[in-house]
């Protein structure tokens, strides 16, 4: 009797231990520092939520594996001669709750992003004048004027289609519980500040997709912890491996780091609204003092490419041959001396990220060599943004990325002084550049567009609207048990086609 | 004084404290610079969207009017909604409270027995080599930063040896024990020295007390004196210290929660502070404060029950 | 104290140092050495702590760099020595500010009693209710990272421990004969408080303050880890440790040496605290 009892106890203890093993073993576990803060595609334009929206909501068009625009919810589309009217024909598709996706839903979703007062990022469809549901499967979009990037912008993260009936009935609650989705996945559980668990959407329009059991998007702010979790087998994918740990991860045969190209560019923003950077000579000297190759080497261990232009190197019309204000400390020193700079101390504002801090330290040291004195002020993200937007800084190393490979949104954000955010809050304003921005968007001829954007890059880089520093790839690490998972330049996981070996 | 009167008076003391706590937790986030809305909407949000959201959330109203709304809601048990997640703050807290509570319980269960053993050994052999060794170890334990230890442990026991998971909370009771082992040990290695030093100090002080000398003079065996007199008299100060330490741990668990990716209250707090999620910070500090007040109250009542002299 | 020492009188004939003297001496030696190094950092340190050398990044400890270099090629030894300035300063100010506030509140509260005492003690209760680290994180996080804001946070939060300590001591000292006598002779309150009461409570405060300095330095390091620490490129040990931890496999020396520095300085503080408390206990 007694041994039997012992055995029983041991068995039950063992079974308890087995329960302790993760129950979601078949899901792809993705660790990222970026958080899902909302499931409503209109509500956030922050990394984390962007990745999530792509998995939950289908757009009218999609980017295929080759990076080209391909049919999404719209099976075909037609653009009128003058480029102002776009007619799209929807395919036979259903929401996760089994209801059909109609032209009404499309019109509702697009206008919602454009018109809601606190919609986070209406810019991509700002040129949309009217949207009309011609019949259940035909949508007619009329633009205010010809706008080359429009089709590409229909692929952006917040252009995902939501259910009109459900959102009208439940309001914000529609994005908290039993969320109706149109993309490859549905929400299985959302634990804010921890993780989002997604499961395949059985009604997804692409037959045979998704090819996996879903995923867990786990939020882990500490970089070393993410890497530890990957190496101990607690994650399959890690976003943003610290550059210092790339060598360690790649040395391990169980993991691959393909270093996918991104649309991220690190730039040194300069405040043009006050001395000394209101002076073009000081700006050019500041740019020439920065050894961007050495900075890229020191911070990213050579993973990033030194930048030569004000726009990301993965965008269409990026000019690889542009060479102005290259590293030349002697010339920079001479320029500073004759510029009239009074020697007063600058403030380099920096937000709390190891990468930006290192850039700030390097910036400070390199500028000191040409006699440009600077002190570093670290700020948390909240203060950083309020100081940046109000122009309370002299210089700051920071970054931006672009949602599409078309440069329109990038130049509006970073270079245009008349597009609402003062050229990434540098207060750089050159009417000629502003005019080129509109010309580039309205021009439908490829060669002419290319020329316009080349000119824009030449002017802004020469005038140092900001200092281009480097173009980093995505430092994502993948377990070799995973196949077909990657990240597109627009921050979207190619999750639906990925498979996980068991 | 009667025990019930004592309880009544003690509860009455809490009222002004609660009002003060509500004021502090409110002003804490309202008086400082920084824009929460921009962080919620994302960097590329338009200025119009930012203004619209500020208005929608009442962030443009006067301080007093915001405070009154806040207190009115808190009294009804409503901590408001998170700016970032647009979910009730209480739901967020309720989700993570059990995890942090489990971690703290785990740490205490690990720490207290070790502490008593070490402190008693050290005190009974004061000045002798076991005492010196224990004191040296406890000094070392106190001076090593927890986050550093945590990173090393994750490397060694998580990756190199693969004995324990380096993250998460796990499923089921044993799962929790397994997943939280490294976080608990890391915290314990810091807490045990603090407690040991204090308990040892209290014990040694008791050993010098007059009544112990009297016992010795009567020829009572040392072992008996220690167990019957010194130990019970050292319990009270240690109990008080434990109360302080629990309060400290509630906040001190932040770092290990971050290093070991345990989604608990600490991780929620850090996310809220860095993301300026005003109402989560308010709600959390309020809940932290209430828990601390409660723990202190319980300890006080226990002390009074054990030693009626403190009632007066 | 051994088990038999109370019955058989301790051997007084052997010349023995007072209890706690050894600890105190070692503690003072360690802390003194660090203060000297910090004061003479400009002379002692072999290099400029912020000088970058991108040609010699992550160099292991060797003749050129005794403690190696970090990811930007800065000399760790020089940074550790210069960091001593920051960390000793941090321990000093971080303790002194709350100490002054706390002592004042404790003295007034304990000496006058009544309504003053009630109000001040409720203030203490309110502050104590917020977990120390949470309040510090909230204040530093909201005001912005950096040492200055850390001191503000400590000043706002850490004084309560001193206030309670002092108040308890004052309540005892107040009843002592010489204080009563001074009162009866019509000495002004301020004179009694500072000339007679304060000296009597200083002992226990000093003992606590040395341990508190360790807490201040450790909590400061944790803030650095959470991204709320000293401004770059300031060489501060806590920030150096947390910045160095991604390199733990590649370049262990980046966080090992500042860690060692932190442990030795803290050890010095605690030994002083221990030594003082043992001597004080013996003398009473």
Automatic annotation (TrEMBL), chain B:
It is found in: Cell membrane. The keyword Transferase does not apply. Residues 97-303 form the ABC transmembrane type-1 domain. Keywords: Cell membrane, Membrane, Transmembrane, Transmembrane helix, Transport. GO terms for cellular component: plasma membrane. Pfam families: BPD_transp_1, BPD_transp_1_N. GO terms for biological process: transmembrane transport. The chain crosses the membrane at residues 12-32, 100-121, 133-157, 177-196, 230-252, 258-274, 286-306. It is a multi-pass membrane protein. PANTHER family: DIPEPTIDE TRANSPORT SYSTEM PERMEASE PROTEIN DPPB-RELATED. Belongs to the binding-protein-dependent transport system permease family. This is ABC transporter permease. It comes from Tabrizicola oligotrophica.
TrEMBL record, chain C:
GO terms for biological process: peptide transport; protein transport; transmembrane transport. It is a multi-pass membrane protein. Keywords: Cell membrane, Membrane, Peptide transport, Protein transport, Transmembrane, Transmembrane helix, Transport. GO terms for cellular component: plasma membrane. It holds the Pfam family BPD_transp_1. The chain crosses the membrane at residues 21-45, 88-112, 119-141, 147-166, 205-230, 250-272. InterPro entries: BP-dependent_transpt_permease, MetI-like, MetI-like_sf. Its main location: membrane. SUPFAM superfamilies: MetI-like. It is found in: Cell membrane. Belongs to the binding-protein-dependent transport system permease family. This is ABC transporter permease. It comes from Tabrizicola oligotrophica. The lineage of its organism: Bacteria, Pseudomonadati, Pseudomonadota, Alphaproteobacteria, Rhodobacterales.
